[in-house]
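Following up on my earlier thread - several people asked me to post the actual chain instead of describing it. Fair enough. Here it is, all 580 residues.
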Amino acid sequence: MDKRGIIFILIFIAIYSAFALASIHKPLQADEIFFALDAEQSHYGKIGIGHPPLYLDSLRLMVKFLGLRRENLRFFAILCFMVTLYLIYLIGKEMTPNHRKGRNIGLLASFIYATHPMVIQGSLILDIDNSILTPLLTLFILSFLKVRDNLTRKRCFLLGLLFFTCLWSKLSTPLVLILSLFLFYFLKGRIREGLVKSLLITAVGIGLFCIVWVSYAYLHHLPPLFLVARIAHPIQRGLGSIFSSLLPELIKRTIRISLWISPFLLFLGLGALAMRLKERSRERITWPTDFCLLYVLIIFFGYILVSGTIWSFPKYHYPLLAVLVLVVAEIIYRLNLKIDRKSLILYAGLTLFFILYNVTVVGDLLYLFNYNLRNFLILAPEKLPGAVRDFLWHLLFYFVPIPLAILAIKVSHRNYRPLKAVILSLFIVLISANISLNILQAKGGYSTTYCYGRDIKNMRQLEEFFRELKSNNPQGVIIGPVDIIYNAGLKLPPYTYDVIGKSSKKFLEAIRDERVICVVYGISWNSLFSYRNVFSDKLVRENLLENYECREMGEYSVWLRKNLLWGREESERRDEGRPI
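Reply from S.P.:
Thanks for posting it. Predicted structure:
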């Protein structure tokens, strides 16, 4: 890499770090705790696995050398971000035959990536898709684009080895690489060649995976077909939730994912797609952009169908961002902008003004959609229409900067074609919206990854309550959000909501258990199904009211056994020597 590239990449990492470090100390949530538990158990010679083991083994390595702290566990995903950032820069050079122009495309794409809120927040989550999987997929894309015009059998074999490494990280998303590769050759009109090479890469990758996995499963006493059931479960669950309410579920998933990825980035991506379709109608030439667009489109629509978001974060969509930013950077670079002092002042002024506008007027749309609407839907359905109107007004304000930017650019640069002014305006608005959301997320006292909008102070309060309750009742069982129980330093309970939260019968059996001393559920943790069909069930309500006393603790409903006292009350009575 040239010195200029090194300097800019380091600057982008510094910008990323300024926002990422503001959230790195937030508590582990949802599925993160199970990866943390697996890493902790392995420290004592145990094994727990739910996916191919590459990510978990990498996490265990971090624990071995750095210790079991959440900042250390998150550091691995941060390293993966840095590797991905560098790979994006390298892929940029392959987007055009002119490597000097390609370098600029790579730097522009790296800048968009490093300042993107979904990238920043996703890099702080303990999970596979947003850590080890993304750089591996990006490395495969870089390797393929380098040899796309001379893909010999030897190179197919090497790509097969890389495909195996991707599969050793996760089984689902790497398959998109093969499909994109075949469709790329289909667009070239070389269908037979594409089929043969795709099958060869697939055979090497899957064949090697099966051999290694069977050996691994034998050594660790695991059923060889375990991973097949593991990959089928989320797909079945995702499709099932769509079919239960097809149109509303699709709309909800699309809005949430679009807000995370950014409508402005998606508009620019659609512009790139339209431009390539127009160019291909004139001449049948296939470019690296086509492969990137295929990859992005398959992941975007495929995962909307099978999963949507997990705990309100689109982690399955995370790998597409590393490629989408390249497509967008190319379309912006093709504008051939000549930035003089006047233009620079205008663009910088618009960007700063829109950042201020977004922070003060628009606010955090992800919070409004993921938490505020959910809050009204669960607790006050009669007020939901008003909350929806409020969200739509903020959404309208969100798009206001686009016409303002177009007007300002057209007035300042009368020679700009309308399309050029629109694309440039979208880019300015994109960067402004990304930075303003980064600011809001950095200073917000709520979760900005999983369980979006969850109040962190409220979580800490509940953690402290759980610790006091268990110290006074060591044998008692608490039913509640397992991440808060874990962060409180307690053992996970025998009853968890992923089992008892799906059936009023199972939930009733759990709360009738005499060992249970406390039952807690909350808006951002528990599902809408649980609130409507489990917690509001007649027999469940009767049992709770008969045996428990309820207090509201922020978003959480806390039900305590009637023969017990509330945390500090009991501790104070013990300290004063009064009878309990």
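The mean pLDDT is 90. That should answer part of your original question.
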